[in-house]
Amino acid sequence: MPTGPARPPIAFIGSLSADEEQAWLDALRRAMPQERLLPAAAIADNHEVELALVANPDPAVVRRFDRLKWMQSLWAGVERLVAEPAFDELPLVRMVDPELARTMAEAVLAWTLYLHRDMPAYLAQQRAAQWLQLPYVPPSRRRVGLLGLGVLGVAAARRLGDAGFPVLGWSRTPKRLGDLGSVTTFSGSEGLMAMVSRTDILVCLLPLTDQTRHLVDEALLQAMPAHACLINFGRGPVVNLPDLVAALSARRLKHAVLDVFDEEPLPAASPLWRHPHLTLLPHISADTDPASASLIVARNVRRWRESGQIPQPVVDRQRGY
Q1: How far is Cα 258 from Cα 158, in angstroms, rounded to an integer?
Q2: pLDDT (tens digit, 9 = 90+) per residue, 300-312?
Q3: Which of 20, 107, 169, 257 is most exposed by smallest CB count within 10 Å?
Q4: Is 7 a catalytic residue?
Q5: If you classify domain 100-280 with CATH, what class do you get?
Q6: What pTM does this model have?
Q7: Which entry of 283, 302, 303, 317 is annotated as an active-site residue?
């Protein structure tokens, strides 16, 4: 049976270890066996590539493929590519994976409970060989505020509400949450301060944009109740680290859990490692699952092949996500 011309290859461009890259390639090839998916370095003719799958790529490598029609991000974070003026006209499709939302909601609940049940204090007591029972506070008396009410924030709000926490949520513009009517929502700059002033545990799920950089600063931390806690699962630069460390050292803030940083991996010489009121995680709150994400990518590619239309959601360059 005669066959048509081979499809142009799809480029895989990422800053991953060899094992991570191979795991992604294997999952993607299983999900779309009809496509030719190749690492960028293995493509002989860069000019024939129309689509790139990207995972925190080196922008210089992306620029080599000068006939791209669109890019599919494999990760939720896209700020590195959004910051590249050379890609302003190139559609970038965000990864929206229900499994990623489930994983993030699980992490938000887990580390909220870690702070709620005073695990940092009990760990310090263990190291000091102290046997001391701290007073128990029911979740109904611990208010959790979410910075960001996108797909991840809504999933986290649902898990927190099911666990008995009163949930507050903030977004840049007003949002209706449908069946999550129990969540008290806020928006805008005035709404931000109103929410944090009522928040015992603040969870940041915001992407990094010009508007969110250093959003969590001295003024915001000062507005929080005394001995409140912070969790940052968004992006490192959303939190002004010197301001956070000052608030922790002065004991205005009780504890913070950080999973994302301005520089990753966090340098071994960083004083953050040794701060007694910080819990540091190596960016593990919600990794993209190659198996589930590959099915979403395969669906997007198939629709594009069939219709010629760029899949949604395409990143809004003005908003930064």
Answers
A1: 22
A2: 999 999 999 999 9
A3: 20
A4: no
A5: alpha beta
A6: 0.91
A7: 283
